[in-house]
Amino acid sequence: MDINTQHRVHFLDSLRGITIIHMVLFHFCYDLVFFVGINISWYTQWPGNLWGTYIRWSFILISGMVFSMGRHPVKRGMILLGWGCVLTLATWAAVPEAMVRFGILSFLGTASLLGALLYPWLKRMPAQWGMLCSAVLLAVCWTVPQGGLGTGRHILMKIPESFYDTSFLYWLGFPSEDFYSSDYFPVFPWIFLFFFGVFLGEFLRYKGVFEWMSRKRPGTLAFLGRHSLCIYLLHQPVLYGVCIILKSLY
Predict the structure, then answer these.
(1) Nearest 5 degrees, angle CA 30-CA 20-CA 15?
(2) How far apart are CA 77 and CA 34, in angstroms?
(3) Alpha-carbon distance 64 to 108, whole Å?
(4) 244, 33 in Cβ contact below 8 A?
(5) If the chain, 250 residues long, is cut into consecutive pieces of 10 residues, what is the mean pLDDT of each piece?
(6) What whole-number distance in Å separates Cα of residue 69 and Cα of residue 66?
(7) How far is CA 62 from CA 14, 81, 135, in A?
(8) Which of 159, 155, 132 is nearest to 143 (CA)?
(9) Looking at residue 181, what is its pLDDT?
């Protein structure tokens, strides 16, 4: 792996651009349903859940793929963590019932810092084995926030309750009973999806895919992908403004 690669793969920027468009549309539907009061039946059923899952997984997976090519992962991690804290404070002050605690920005910042810390060991593992181990650990740790290790919704081995009795380990994946967040991405299990993306990015680069893609001319989607953080921070205030107008007319 080389986290100091100078070339930016426009294809990955475009993928992130597509995902950011989906995210804006997804949140617009959310605001229409729960703020304006418009009935969008499919959104509150499995199609909406599947759509949200695609967006969440895409963001983390693409971020992992970009990590091994990006520069200054510690700086980027600190910036994302800082904005994550700003988002927490803003939601606590404006909409406490929808407060965000350790949401996607906080997670991606933490993942970038952990990735930089573990890089000397990650680069020693063959990419194929890294993807396999990450997938297995993701599956095993999927139920950590629910109280144990397991697969799917089935807990096979419980984690001591003392881990969940604290009020400061929620960011790791040990939320207390009274913990609430409208956007929650704890380190366990999501860090392993991020690492899967890191190894997938390394595998594609080894196959020469990124070198070929880096020659492609960037377009609008790549532009959106490069400015995804700015769009993420601004899209909800804009959508709220639109919904206020719609609510007055609806």
Answers:
(1) 140
(2) 32
(3) 9
(4) no
(5) 52 91 96 90 95 96 87 92 96 89 97 93 92 96 94 88 93 95 96 96 76 68 92 92 84
(6) 5
(7) 10, 18, 15
(8) 155
(9) 95
- The CA–CA distances, whole Å, from 188 to 131, 135, 220, 235 equal 16, 13, 34, 28
**Dihedral sign of CA atoms 179, 180, 181, 186 in order:** positive
The tokens for 129 are: 């084995």
| 62: nearest Cα among 23, 101, 117 | 23
Question: Which pLDDT tens digit goes with each residue over 184-199?
Answer: 999 999 999 999 999 9
Single-letter amino acid code for the residue at 193: L
Query: What is the pTM assigned to this prediction?
Result: 0.91
